[in-house]
Amino acid sequence: MELRRLLTFINPATVMQGEPRDHTPAAERWLEATLFASRWLMAPFYLGLVLALAALLVVFAGELAAEVSHILNMTPEGAILMGLSLIDLSLAGNLLLIVIFSGYENFVSKLDVGDRNDRPVWMGTVDFTALKLKLISSIVAISAISLLRSFLKIGDEPLDEAALKWRVIVHLTFVTSGVLLAVMDLVSSRSLRH
Question: Over the stretch 138-185, which tens digit does the pLDDT of each residue have?
Fold first, then answer.
């Protein structure tokens, strides 16, 4: 190490292999540092999603309290609808959590929570491709639950055929988008191997 410093001191153009001199202009280095630091502008978005998760929790608690208050008079279909509503909200919460953790780790900084035993196994392993697939699969599941709730309400209230038709179309659009996204990722991963 001392030899390298001495050689560089004697002749600054003499740099040993493995340590190239940085001849990048200062303006370019400043621009690159600024662009790299701009990733922190995403941090408030993730804090906003944490607030959205808290709001979802409040809605979940309200829904649960409202449903539990008349549980003794509930029909089997009503119990299924209650379960589907709660599952729907929990899937939306899971979706927010995945976006918060994975988005932050992929685009801002690694989460340094130490060697905690309760750290989810998937944290730090969900890349952008896996994040997209998890997102679309959660959206498809939420859409399917919404559609199922609509079908279970048939007979209990007047049927709005147009709304039901649009729910089916939107759900099929989500499913088709998910399948196409998965196929594109599969083709892309195979082309990278060759």
Answer: 888 888 888 887 877 776 777 778 888 888 898 899 899 888 888 888
The structural domains of the chain, with segments of one domain joined by +, span 39-109+124-152+162-189
User: What's the whole-model pTM score?
Assistant: 0.65
- For 49, the 3-state DSSP assignment is helix
How many angstroms separate the CA atoms of 15 and 94, rounded?
A: 52
- The model's confidence at residue 58, banded by pLDDT at 50, 70 and 90, is very high
User: 49: which 2 tokens?
Assistant: 């999603």
- What does the block give as tokens for 187? 């083709």
Q: Comparing C-alpha atoms, which of 13, 193, 15 is closest to residue 3? A: 15
Q: Considering only CA atoms, which of 81, 71, 92 is closest in space to residue 156?
A: 81
DSSP 79-124: HHHHHHHHHHHHHHHHHHHHHHHHHHHHHT------S-TTS-TTTT
Query: Do residues 149 and 84 touch, judged by C-beta distance below 8 A?
Result: yes
Amino acid letter for position 46: Y
